[in-house]
Amino acid sequence: MKQRISILLILLLVISLFAAGCSGGEDTTPQEPEDMAEVQEEGEDISQEPEETPAPDGSIQDEISAGEADVEEEPDNTQDQEEPEAGEDEPAQVVETEPELVPEEQKEEATEQTSDEAQEEPVVAEPQIVQEGPLLKVEGRVSTPLSLDLSQLKSMDSLIYSADYYWLNSFGSTGHTSFKGIKLWGLLTEEAGIGSDAQTVRIVATDGYEMTFTVDQIRKQDYIDETDDSKKLPVIVAWQEDGSQYDSDKGPPYKLVVGQKEAGDVNKPQWVSNIDRIIVE
Ligand SMILES: Nc1nc2c(c(=O)[nH]1)N[C@H]1C(S)=C(S)[C@@H](COP(=O)(O)O)O[C@H]1N2
Ligand SMILES: [Mo]
Q1: pLDDT over 90 for what percent of the chain?
Q2: What pLDDT is recorded for position 129?
Q3: What are the counts of helices (DSSP H) followed by strands (DSSP E) for the chain?
Q4: Where are any strands of DSSP class E within the chain?
Q5: Who contacts 88 (Cβ-Cβ below 8 Å, separation ≥6)?
Q6: Distance, CA of 49 to CA of 92 (rounded, Å)
Q7: What is the mean pLDDT of residues 192-204?
Q8: Which residue minimizes the CA distance to atom 21 of ligand 1?
Q9: Mutate which of 268, 275, 278 to test ligand 1's pocket (most atoms within 8 Å of Cβ)?
């Protein structure tokens, strides 16, 4: 009996060895998906990524370092997540996590920068068109309606005029005030193109105060100062009085100033402060 049992055992051993030998041979070339599954189920690390296991010379480490260096050196390459090198290195978990983290930070920065730029653009654009003070409008019977800020008025060199204007108001008080501004007739003819059929010029202030002149009264360049015969004064729109520019926070910094037509002419009530628009009719 013992002999038979021994023979049987030996036979079993031989059979199992043969079977083991066959399956072992298959294991070395796990190309079939089925085999891969089997192998992975068995938890054999060797065959997890058989083809992509890095060469033992540590070249994958070099590539990882190179990848990181690239990311750091070129922070703008946020979209280079599919870097060919990174793709090849995918099996290494280090590569999968680290590059993801870094680009995400960069992504945020990039997004911030982009949105900042987007927000800055208008901010940057506005200062380029900085408007100096409220606008002075010229409209009505003109070929070119105007809407001018202080800087534009100040740039009209040939129209700029400065002088002391004598004033007399309705209560009999008098004085001299120095003004700097532009000649209104020059503005109407050279800039606005006043129509040949124009009859009157209305000067309208923001508070509703207004004075209407005839075109001839605006064209006139020889208003007088009854205390100084040598003066011949034009009608001006002034932005500066006694050396100080009007405060734009207190209204449009434009004042219509006119001299006297003759001695005793009460001219001060005709000075219109805070002009909003000039209407040619
Ligand atoms: N916009 C505006 N301009 C105006 C007035 C006004 O009420 N509003 N008053 C006029 C009158 S009646 C006079 S006497 C002078 C007063 O000038 P002053 O404010 O510089 O003293 O402004 C003239 N210009
Ligand atoms: Mo007045």
Answers
A1: 53
A2: 74
A3: 8, 12
A4: 136-140, 146-148, 160-168, 174-183, 200-205, 210-214, 223-225, 228-233, 236-241, 244-245, 255-257, 275-280
A5: 63
A6: 10
A7: 98
A8: 268
A9: 268
With a Cβ cut-off of 6 Å, ligand 1 is lined by: 169, 205, 207, 209, 268-269, 271-274
C-alpha 271/C-alpha 237 separation (Å) is 10
Contacting residues for 138 by C-beta, under 8 A, at least 6 apart: 145, 146, 147, 148, 187, 188, 191, 192, 277, 278, 280
The one-letter amino acid code at 172 reads G
Angle in degrees, 0-180, between the axes of helices 93-128 and 59-73, rounded to the nearest 10: 10
In sequence order, what are the beta bridge partners of 178?
164
- Encoding tokens for residue 199? 């009859």
Residue whose CA lies nearest to ligand 1 atom number 24: 272
Residue 130's pLDDT is 85
